[in-house]
Amino acid sequence: MKGKGSIGLADRIRNLPPYLFASIDRMKAEALSKGVDLIDMSIGDPDIPTPRHIVKKMKEAVERPENHRYPSYEGMFSFRKAVAEWYKKRFGVTLNPDNEVISLIGSKEGIGHLPLAFINPGDYSLVPSPAYPVYSIATLFAGGRGHIMPLLKENNFLPDLGAIPMGVIKKAKLMFLNYPNNPTTATATREFFKEVVDFAMRNNIVVCHDAAYSEIYFGKKRPLSFLQIPGARDVGIEFHSLSKTYNMTGWRIGFAVGNARLLAGLGKIKTNLDSGVFQAIQEAGIEALRTKGSDLDVLRRIYQERRDVFCRGLRSAGLGVYKPEATFYVWVEVPKGFDSTGFVAHLLKNAGVLATPGNGFGKAGEGYVRFALTITIERIEEAVERIRRVV
Ligand SMILES: *Cc1c(COP(=O)(O)O)cnc(C)c1O
Q1: Which in 64, 132, 184, 312 has the greatest CB count within 10 A?
Q2: Third-level CATH fold of 11-49+294-390
């Protein structure tokens, strides 16, 4: 019989890259235990509560017994229809709610499961760096390999498709993209998306576009849906989240839309792993998707004001700041003499301000730090004052 000590973790989790935030977490805990008045700008989790009308709808929906039973894995038809209506209104894209929309238990769930539907052992996913870590980890969990597409400043933080080796392209099944981008805050151009559709068609690659921040924008030009590009529906699916747009990170609801055959692949994985989103949450989700545009304008103005105060402050302190056109993050160049982790440690120790080191999102994030604008304007002003004194 095997002894207790021989029970080991599976290679797929034992071989995960080291947790880069571990040392930061330790420093954070230490600062808090010393009673430091910490300004935490490291986490992209909205501080503003879910709008009242959505909470009210949830309260009503949770009372109804028909909502207490197993939901369908692909989502209630009424929810999928609300998604299709939202898409039509926001992007001018027509979706069939029967097979071109699927509900998700948060978009992370769908992104995390997608490679199981498309990756065979040894296949590649094309993964941007820096990026949301789930793309590469989910690829590894499915037995695949991630090929890094660096997002560089000189390319406006868009991947250079021409730099991907032919040998990799031949074995690539998936490409992950995310615009507006976390962490660099870059947005995609129509030309770039056209290039992606062309590339994916020529090479038979599934495009998986993560559009979690499509509604957090500040300029006149609203971020694009990948599906607005002709041909995109033949090669791709797009992930959306209600988390950031409607301050619903804790509720766990999102959706994927696009190519019906590809969504059916994801759906097949899901039928075997989960049983859908609690119907009361889907009803609240429908209510969320029908939020008035003017309410979202108010939300965007709040982030915009925070952005303006923070960027102005850091620039006057001499830091290299990319003023974001979208997302609630600010991507900042680390000053000379520091690396990402060193600068985060310096700010934490000497200013009591916590940012996320860029290298935590992948090697190409080295030399940057990310701040999240998910704190009040008063705290942002305080953070600026403190940072100014130590750079
Ligand atoms: C927050 C975030 C998500 C996940 O959102 P959920 O719907 O809450 O799972 C996905 N992608 C990116 C880039 C994010 O920042």
Answers
A1: 184
A2: Aspartate Aminotransferase, domain 1 (3.90.1150)
| Selection from 279, 267, 278, 283 nearest residue 102 by Cα | 267
Closest ligand 1 atom number to CA of residue 252: 8
Question: Which residue puts its alpha carbon closest to atom 11 of ligand 1?
Answer: 212
CA–CA gap between residue 230 and residue 383 (Å, rounded): 45
Asked if residues 329 and 185 have their Cβ atoms less than 8 Å apart, the reply is: yes
Query: SS3 of 124, please?
Result: strand
CA contacts within 13 A on the Cβ side of 189: 8
Arithmetic mean of pLDDT, 365-369? 97
Atom of ligand 1 nearest to the CA of 178: 13
pLDDT digits (tens, 9 = 90+) for 109-128: 999 999 999 999 999 999 99
What pLDDT sits at residue 243? 98
Distance (Å, rounded) from C-alpha 260 to C-alpha 368?
Answer: 39
Please report, for the chain, the start and end positions of each structural domain, with discontinuous segments joined by +: 11-49+294-390, 52-289
Instruction: Return the number of other C-beta atoms located less than 10 Å from residue 63's C-beta.
Output: 10
Instruction: Decide: 103 and 252 in contact? Cβ < 8 Å.
Output: no
CATH class of 52-289: alpha beta
The overall pTM is greater than 0.85? yes
pLDDT at 255 (0 to 100): 98
